[in-house]
Amino acid sequence: MLRHFAVHCAARRVAGLTATPSVVARSFSKKAKAGKGKASPEVSVSLDEVSKKTQEDVMKNMKGAVLNYTKVLSAMRPGQADAGIFDNLMLSAYGQMVPLPQLGQVSVVGSHELAVTVYDPSMIKDAKKAIEEMNPSFTVHPNGTTLDIRFPKMTKETRDELIKAAKKQAEAARQHIRRVRQDGMNDLKKLKDSISEDDIKREQDKIQRLTDESIKDIGSLLTAKEKDLSSV
């Protein structure tokens, strides 16, 4: 019987040594009026859960940057006026980011001209700036609470302006992706007292792969846009 008991104890010790590492978060209740409060129970969060949350946040933000750049490029086109071109143009208004069509009415005036009637006159200046930054080839003229926007015909100068703007937006997207990468790396470094360096390095490598893939996607989109503009 003693031999069986010793084997049982040894098995429990081995199980304890091979258990999955975890990050333990401790929280304590506020002091009661009569004295110190009691510590709340420990909450154990596994490495897999922490890693999954970090990777999901990184992937979501990087994919968001690629998607946003895709929308920006879709608006960089000369020629025929299209009222839907501003559907994804976001402006900062009333403490949040709002699509331009929610701030004003977009109308097709002619084959190469749009009009945006802004509901709030105080937003005219910001709307004009956002439209010009979205596509430098547009000619934007304020007319009271309305912005008259002309679509230029394709010329070498227009093509060069659009390609330059596409490159500028590509670099902005890359910088955003790199910031997301750095945030993810920093989140993992905060766990250095709870998990091994090898585990941190493994998770950081995953983030780096996501970064490389996202930046490659931005480059591919830019190359395709340059080719598209050059063929017009």
From TrEMBL:
<keyword id="KW-0963">Cytoplasm</keyword>
<comment type="similarity">
    <text>Belongs to the RRF family.</text>
</comment>
<feature type="domain" description="Ribosome recycling factor">
    <location>
        <begin position="71"/>
        <end position="229"/>
    </location>
</feature>
<dbReference type="InterPro" id="IPR002661">
    <property type="entry name" value="Ribosome_recyc_fac"/>
</dbReference>
<dbReference type="GO" id="GO:0006412">
    <property type="term" value="P:translation"/>
</dbReference>
<dbReference type="InterPro" id="IPR036191">
    <property type="entry name" value="RRF_sf"/>
</dbReference>
<dbReference type="GO" id="GO:0043023">
    <property type="term" value="F:ribosomal large subunit binding"/>
</dbReference>
<dbReference type="Pfam" id="PF01765">
    <property type="entry name" value="RRF"/>
</dbReference>
<dbReference type="InterPro" id="IPR023584">
    <property type="entry name" value="Ribosome_recyc_fac_dom"/>
</dbReference>
<protein>
    <recommendedName>
        <fullName>Ribosome recycling factor domain-containing protein</fullName>
    </recommendedName>
</protein>
<keyword id="KW-0648">Protein biosynthesis</keyword>
<dbReference type="GO" id="GO:0005739">
    <property type="term" value="C:mitochondrion"/>
</dbReference>
